[in-house]
Amino acid sequence: MNAKTPFLSDIQELRRRARLNMEKGPITESYKGNVEQVVDILNQALATELVCVLRYKRHFYMARGINKDAVAAEFLQHATEEQGHADLIAERITQLGGAPDFSPQGLATRSHSEYVEGDSLVDMIRENLVAERIAIESYTEIIRYFGDKDPTSRRLMEQILAVEEEHANDMADLLEQQSA
Ligand SMILES: [Fe+2]
Ligand SMILES: [Fe+2]
Question: Phi, psi (5° rounding) for residue 16?
Fold first, then answer.
């Protein structure tokens, strides 16, 4: 590559383009994603997180048995972290000019993970593990899809994925302790 070749675009051109479509906020001409589709996918991830908040909260309040305290504390911590993920995703949706869908109508359908109440403590732990594994699979696909089309959304989902992997690990450990 010639040393004189300009990096990216010509700076004047870049400055000119930045002044076009200012109402699009951070969405510039270099954005390669399909904004509508990205917002739709992020809304599915938002629904997934919200269902996880509800499920972990339910389990926190319904945990019973002699060794419930440590398990319930873990459920509550996860509920709080899923809420944090939901907030991060909702914020990203608004940055993209979209609207975060918090409607309870159809929430379970938009979500990839399921809301299963579970009867016993072991059931609850198992259902949470299943839900985390679903989130891991779906977020991995989302990350692959975002690729370099929307690196910011991709990094956000990568950061969330790492926490879901920790969550799955926590649930797997608890499950092992329960059957020990
Ligand atoms: Fe999460
Ligand atoms: Fe999680």
Answer: -65, -45
- Expressed in angstroms and rounded, the spacing between residue 10 Cα and the centre of ligand 1 is 41
Please report the pLDDT score of residue 1 as a whole number. Answer: 46
Distance 148 CA to ligand 2 centre (A): 25
**Residue 141 is which amino acid?**
E
Buried-state track 54-84, b at ≥16 Cβ within 10 A, e below 16 = bbbbbbbebbeeeeeeebbebbbebbebbbe
Ligand 1 centroid to residue 127 C-alpha, Å: 15
pTM: 0.91
Neighbours of ion ligand 1 (CB under 5 A): 49, 82, 85
- Residue 53 CA to ligand 2 center (angstroms) comes to 9
The residue behind tokens 């299943």 is: 130
CA-CA distances (angstroms) from residue 139 to 115, 118, 132, 145, 162?
18, 24, 10, 10, 10
- Mean pLDDT is lowest, of 13-17, 109-113, 135-139, 148-152, for 13-17
